[in-house]
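FAQ

Q: What does a record look like?
A: Structure on top, sequence underneath. For example:
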């Protein structure tokens, strides 16, 4: 008797896996074009490779190859047979003079992160990082080099936080504690919304020099105080109305994060609100991909860091004394997590 033939399964190809094999290529290409000013030059209009080579000092051969690749990725386009032009994405986010410029992030990726990720087999074998970003003096140097370049990544989220907290409508003084301030984006954007906002920024001393430089550029230095030191030792002060913890918990690990949240609770006034920015995983850790990738980034670059779920962080907040952990949808890689110190 003839056996029935099984229905053919879905056609499987290695195409997606092969794309992963060259996943290192786009960030390196973008960083090179940022470095040689390709996007900046094209911001004034379409140009040929020869025109860009003359200004940038890069080779015609090198530029043609890499720019054609970015055409294929949709980050450049052909205006005609010889001239290249920007796409809406690259015009908005890869031109250094634009407020949304994200190009600096790619130097951080290629010069700081990729060399550590190349040690992955040994890191997976031992469970130990290539270098721990919380260790001094490496940590402060690591963050000092790139925090300014990620200012745009959090700008819109900080703006959304200010709107949700109705900062612009307040007629009373607002004290903002910016924990792990880095570029200062969280506190400084809130200060832009109201002259009543004053900021206490906490970070390592040399990172705070970057915070202050950006505050001066924004005309907000007179409303910025700094408190240097490790986050579990620096003086947080008391009576703050808002505390921001912007992309910090992932590098601290659960133990230090719990201690940090308790210190934050003690530094807030009754009714004060903490806002946490993190790469939040879904509850069963099946996504989103960026949060799962960043978990591995913490394996590579920290002793205990990880990415966490909303229920996990909510539990830590409640154990520290906070109430009403909740999500605030804002533009950015993840929603913010808010919680309140009870009256």
């Amino acid at each position: 008797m003839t056996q029935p033939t099984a229905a053919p399964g879905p056609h499987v190809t290695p195409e997606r896996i092969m794309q992963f094999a060259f996943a290192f290529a786009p960030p390196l290409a973008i960083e090179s074009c940022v470095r040689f000013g390709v996007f900046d030059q094209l911001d004034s209009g379409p140009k040929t490779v020869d025109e860009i080579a003359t200004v940038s000092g890069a080779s015609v051969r090198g530029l043609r190859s890499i720019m054609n690749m970015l055409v294929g990725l949709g980050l450049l386009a052909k205006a005609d047979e010889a001239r290249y032009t920007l796409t809406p994405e690259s015009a908005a986010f890869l031109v250094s003079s634009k407020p949304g410029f994200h190009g600096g992030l790619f130097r951080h990726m290629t010069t700081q992160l990729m060399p550590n990720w190349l040690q992955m087999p040994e890191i997976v074998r031992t469970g130990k990082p290539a270098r721990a970003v919380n260790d001094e003096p490496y940590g402060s140097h690591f963050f000092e080099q790139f925090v300014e370049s990620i200012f745009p990544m959090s700008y819109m989220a900080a703006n959304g936080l200010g709107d949700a907290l109705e900062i612009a409508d307040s007629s009373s003084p607002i004290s903002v504690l910016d924990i792990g301030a880095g570029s200062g984006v969280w506190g400084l954007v809130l200060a832009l919304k109201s002259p009543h906002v004053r900021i206490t920024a906490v970070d390592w001393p040399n990172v705070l020099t970057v915070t202050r430089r950006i505050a001066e550029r924004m005309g907000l230095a007179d409303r910025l105080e700094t408190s240097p030191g490790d986050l579990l030792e620096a003086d947080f002060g008391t009576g703050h109305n808002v505390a921001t913890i912007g992309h910090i918990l992932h590098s601290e690990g659960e133990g230090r994060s719990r201690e940090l949240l308790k210190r934050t609770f003690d530094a807030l006034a009754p009714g004060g609100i903490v806002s946490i920015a993190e790469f939040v995983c879904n509850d069963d850790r099946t996504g989103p991909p960026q949060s799962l990738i960043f978990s591995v980034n913490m394996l590579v670059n920290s002793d205990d860091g990880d990415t966490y779920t909303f229920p996990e962080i909510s539990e830590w907040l409640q154990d520290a004394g906070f109430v009403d952990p909740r999500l605030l949808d804002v533009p950015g890689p993840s929603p913010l997590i808010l919680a309140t110190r009870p009256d």
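Q: Is there anything notable about this one?
A: The chain has a mean pLDDT of 94.
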